[in-house]
Structures are given as structure tokens and as C-alpha cells.
Amino acid sequence: MASSRKSVLFVCLGNICRSPIAEAVFKKMATDASVVDKWVIDSGATSDWNTGSSPDARGLACLRKHGIETKHRARQVTKEDFLTFDYILCMDESNLSDLKKKANSVKNSKAKIELLGSYDPEKQLIIKDPYYGHEEDFENVYQQCVRCCKVFLERNS
Q: Which residues are catalytic (predicted)?
């Protein structure tokens, strides 16, 4: 029964730094918990700047350091996403505002749009864009995603 699967879409501005890290982290956690087949997991961008691109090399290196691989290619969030995903989890207030605007233009949007950081036990609500930063900024994003995804998965198990 495919309809019993839960679904989550992780979103940031360009879909090359934060959201592919969140997607890869959540996939790994769901796989380790033997529930990955119960989920549809993806990520996307509010912008169309990087469509088709691989994630940022620094993000890929950070994931690799933690034993995680991803083959994700950047894509923009579509109207269809609001109809098919249960949860759309984004990284900052700007993403949240863009997504809510888009959702308002979609009839019967079912997605619950939230900040991924709202699941952080350390209460760091915003996951800052590491694009103009350094390796440690990607590591911070990774650690925030681990904390948030863990709680999100526990609440949806």
C-alpha cells in the first residue's frame, strides 16, 4: 500500500547545501531504523538557480566524512509537491515565507510547512546557509540536521 507511506521534502534556497544534507541525513537515519521503505524522501529549492546541479562539494565532503553518500540533483519545488508531500521542512524564515506564498496558490495543499529547526532539541530554529562560509559551517549544518531529523523521525515513527 503506497498510500500508507509518509513523505518529507527538505527545502532551502538553492538545494545544493542545506536541504540535500538534510535529505541524506534523514535517508540514512530511516535506513538505519529499517523504516526507509515507509518514507518518500526528497529535497528541493525555492529558487531555480541550481536546477540539475550536484550538491556543493563541501557539503558532499562533509557527508562523506560521516559515511553518507548522495546522488541528489537540485530541483525547484513544484505545485505538485504541496499536494504529494505530508511535510515540507525548510531551513529559514525566507524559505518559510516563499513556501507559504506558493502553497496559497495551490488548491488542496496538504503539506505541513515547518522550519526543520523547530525539531531541534537545542532550540536553534534557523539553519544558516553555509554557502559563503567554510567547512565548519557545513559541519554545523550537518549537526543541526542530525538533531532535527532524529526528533522528526521519532515523532513520526
A: 12 (nucleophile), 18, 129 (proton donor)
Interval 105-134: pLDDT, tens: 999 999 999 999 999 999 999 999 999 999
Q: Which of these is catalytic: 129, 145, 147, 148? A: 129
- Its pTM surpasses 0.85: yes
Superfamily covering domain 6-156: Response regulator (3.40.50.2300)
* Burial grade of 134 (CB within 10 A; 0-12, 13-18, 19 or more): exposed
12 is catalytic: yes
Active-site option among 17, 18, 62, 145: 18
Tell me which amino acid residue 32 is: D
Q: Catalytic: 62?
A: no
pLDDT digits (tens, 9 = 90+) for 1-11: 345 899 999 99
User: E strands along the chain, which residues?
Assistant: 6-12, 39-45, 87-90, 112-115
pLDDT, one tens digit per residue, over 40-56 is 999 999 999 999 999 99
